[in-house]
Amino acid sequence: MSLSAKEKVIVKDFFAKVSSRSDEIGAEALARLIVVYPQTKSYFAHWKDLSPNGAPVRKHGITVMGGVYEAVSKIDDLAGGLLTLSELHAFMLRVDPVNFKILSHCILVVLSMLFAEEFTPQIHVAVDKFLALVALALSEKYR
Amino acid sequence: MVEWTDFERATIQSIFSKMDYDDVGPAVLSRCLVVYPWTQRYFGNFGNLYNAAAIQGNPMVAAHGKTVLHGLDRAVKNMDDIKATYEELSVLHSEKLHVDPDNFRLLADCLTIVVAARMGVDFTADVQGAFQKFLAVVVSSLGRQYH
């Protein structure tokens, strides 16, 4: 499943439109991840504060969303563009790739929540495909 | 046996009592058919599903969306035995309709996203957790009679 030229435009336009709230999106998505899927907390055991609205979670959500935006800018070559991030996740963080899917779902829920009017089914499918391809690119160096 | 906290029970009852089924039902099914186009395989006789606009305007999709959503009512009213409540429906989906049970999960994800859109910031992380737990039980129950 690859992105058509039209879908790339949809993704770039939509993320540009919501960029002013990207920090909020990231923080919300990560908060939801650890509340709705508590097993994901296992990756953050080193944080003193694991409360969904606490500083570490919000800050990390912003970092993750920054990564998503980097992926948007490299939408024409995700595997190549996200090589370094893939190495990070594969060799250092060793996040089980199943969690990429779970986080993608949380991002979609937050986008739907904050941008109900704009998040039409057509935009939903393009963003969903994009996030799946980002997950795939992040998994590149795993084995 | 699923254990529900008071918060979870109250949340599920609240969401469904306030839901406009005539709005949400069609929205959920049409979104599912657009976002996961392979699900269209079960609706060969629904006429025009050629693009998103056609799907969203299709009256058969709308009607069926309402049917499916009203089907969730039974679980809402019988939260303590969803498994038994859906035994017959599970057999129906397996033996007669031949629906891949993974589709239940896809539809549940679409429902979560539509409810999030309707509720906005009221769809907090805790509410999402309760809602997804409920849907997970429904999905599991509907898949139970597949052999």
TrEMBL record, chain A:
A Pfam short name: Globin
Residue ranges constituting the Globin domain according to the UniProt record: 2-143
An annotated GO BP: hydrogen peroxide catabolic process
Keywords recorded for this protein, A-Z: Heme, Iron, Metal-binding, Oxygen transport, Transport
Listed InterPro entries: Globin, Globin-like_sf, Globin/Proto, Hemoglobin_a-typ, Hemoglobin_oxygen_transport
GO CC annotation: blood microparticle; haptoglobin-hemoglobin complex; hemoglobin complex
Molecular function, one GO term: metal ion binding
Record-stated family: Belongs to the globin family.
Record protein name field: Globin domain-containing protein
Species whose genome carries this gene: Hucho hucho (huchen)
From TrEMBL, chain B:
GO MF, one example: oxygen carrier activity
Domain Globin: 3-147
GO cellular component terms, A-Z: blood microparticle; haptoglobin-hemoglobin complex; hemoglobin complex
A biological process from GO: hydrogen peroxide catabolic process
Pfam families associated with the record: Globin (PF00042)
Record InterPro entries: Globin, Globin-like_sf, Globin/Proto, Hemoglobin_b, Hemoglobin_oxygen_transport
Keyword terms: Heme, Iron, Metal-binding, Oxygen transport, Transport
Family: Belongs to the globin family.
Name of the protein: Hemoglobin subunit epsilon 1
